[in-house]
């Protein structure tokens, strides 16, 4: 129903592991394995945690089976270093054409409501986090924000002085147009002219 997506791109790794491992014990509702894996293949994983969760599924195993692996028996079958792709050349110092990103912050949930929009320029290929940083540097009284570092990368916990609160089940959710972003601010790369919305939300 979602072109192979199970949950979101971050939950795909564990979902594929679970579906692969439990298929031996019961007959779940039929699912299109190839379609789900095509979602994984088409995504560029950058976060170590996401990579660690999706790799077992890609080799047909799961965390549940890790304890039974015979490392000695498989030592001779590991791919040689020659088969590994060469690292991409460093891009330090390479000029990237600037792009314009429109950025809005919206709170219609708590306290004094607000809706602010700005446009910033960042180098092409910059993560969304850089858009937030430029906006905050240009208009700190409006677009200031705070993050917490997690195993999935930086997570925005406060914008314009309004902090997410698990007791209230509130958080900052990011959208590209009407669609919620499937990546975090540390990895999502906005397109030129894209409008990103940070919306104070509840779950």
UniProtKB/TrEMBL annotation:
GO molecular function annotations of the record: cobalamin binding
Domain of life (superkingdom): Eukaryota
Name of this protein: Gastric intrinsic factor
Gene Ontology CC terms: extracellular space
GO terms classed as biological process: cobalamin transport; cobalt ion transport
Principal subcellular localization: secreted
InterPro entries in the cross-refs: Cbl-bd_prot, Cobalamin_Transport
Gene name for this UniProt entry: GIF
The keyword Transcription appears for this protein: no
Subcellular location: Secreted
Family (UniProt): Belongs to the eukaryotic cobalamin transport proteins family.
Coiled-coil positions: none
Keywords, alphabetical: Cobalt, Cobalt transport, Ion transport, Secreted, Signal, Transport
Binding site for cyanocob(III)alamin: 8, 53, 181, 203
């Amino acid at each position: 129903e979602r072109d192979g997506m199970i949950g979101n791109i971050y939950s795909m790794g564990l979902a594929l592991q679970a579906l692969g491992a439990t298929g031996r014990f019961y007959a779940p509702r039929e699912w299109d394995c190839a379609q789900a894996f095509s979602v994984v293949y088409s995504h560029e994983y950058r976060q170590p945690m996401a990579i660690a969760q999706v790799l077992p599924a890609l080799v047909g195993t799961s965390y549940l089976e890790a304890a039974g692996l015979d490392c000695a028996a498989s030592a001779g079958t590991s791919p040689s270093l020659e088969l590994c792709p060469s690292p991409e050349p460093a891009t330090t110092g390479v000029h990237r054409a600037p792009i314009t990103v429109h950025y809005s912050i919206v709170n219609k949930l708590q306290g004094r409501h607000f809706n602010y929009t700005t446009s910033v320029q960042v180098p092409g290929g910059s993560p969304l986090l850089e858009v937030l940083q430029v906006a905050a540097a240009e208009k700190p009284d409006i677009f200031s924000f705070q993050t917490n570092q997690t195993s999935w990368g930086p997570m925005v916990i406060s914008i314009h002085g309004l902090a997410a609160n698990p007791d209230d089940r509130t958080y900052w959710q990011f959208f590209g147009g009407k669609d919620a972003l499937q990546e975090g601010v540390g990895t999502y790369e906005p397109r030129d002219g894209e409008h990103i919305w940070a919306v104070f939300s509840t779950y």
